[in-house]
Amino acid sequence: MYEVKDWQHVFKLDPAKEISDAHLELICESGTDAIFVGGSDNITVDNVLDLMSRVRRYPVPCILELSTLESAMPGFDHYMIPSVLNSSNVAYHNGILHEAIKQFGHMMDYDLFTLEGYIVLNQESKVAQLTKAKTDLSIEDIAAYAEMIEEVYKLKTMYIEYSGTYGDVEMVKAAKRKLKSTRLIYGGGIDSRARAQEMREVADTIVVGNVIYTDIEAALQTVKVGLS
Ligand code: 1GP
To answer: Which residues bind Mg(2+) per the record (predicted)?
Structure first.
């Protein structure tokens, strides 16, 4: 059983983007703790299945971040379900999950599912626009979300998502201060060892996405950063 509590570093691959076999091998054999498969648009059964089968050649855990019903399929090691708590559209809180359970509940192994208390903070990102997220949050807002996720929802994970831009470390710290057993996942704009290190000092798990496609060497530098 794969458990998010063991992950410090994750690469997120977008099924809608091209990656060569050589680069995929470097990513999967980098020493990262898991590969997330997920993206915001142009996600199809074919491109998710293709990516899963290519990642499957390597012993690294392969995890689907389930953001659309179209990409729901068996065969992944684990499933992360984002619940975008600062979205104004209830579909992104629980609507997609509700529909998934309606269609596939009879064949779902719920031990393989982890709900992410997801907060989207980069207004320019596709995910913010798609989910109509309220991104202009204060330190107090993010702290209250963290408290809600830890104390009331009692979720295993909170995900701070700055997709496409490097986030405000003070916001991440404000969330972390409220978390005890909930694990804090951070993603967004990590494109160097220094940034990986800085966010790893605060978050429990860092997620690295876009730089895989723009600078593979820099992406590999984000793995196994030591903590000071
Ligand atoms: C995106 O959080 C991940 O969902 C990673 O963000 O693509 O900016 O690295 P980047």
So the answer is: 14, 40
What's the predicted TM-score (pTM) here?
0.96
The atom of ligand 1 lying closest to the CA of 39 is 4
Q: Which of 14, 66, 207 to mutate to test the pocket of ligand 1 (most atoms within 8 A of CB)?
A: 207
Whether 210 is in the pocket of ligand 1, judged by its Cβ within 6 Å, is yes
d(CA 228, CA 217): 23
Residue 93 lies in a domain: yes
Q: Is 223 helix (H, G, I), strand (E, B) or coil?
A: coil
Using left for φ > 0, alpha for ψ between -120 and 50, and beta otherwise, residue 212 falls in alpha
Low-confidence ranges of the chain (pLDDT < 50): none
In a domain, 2, yes or no: no
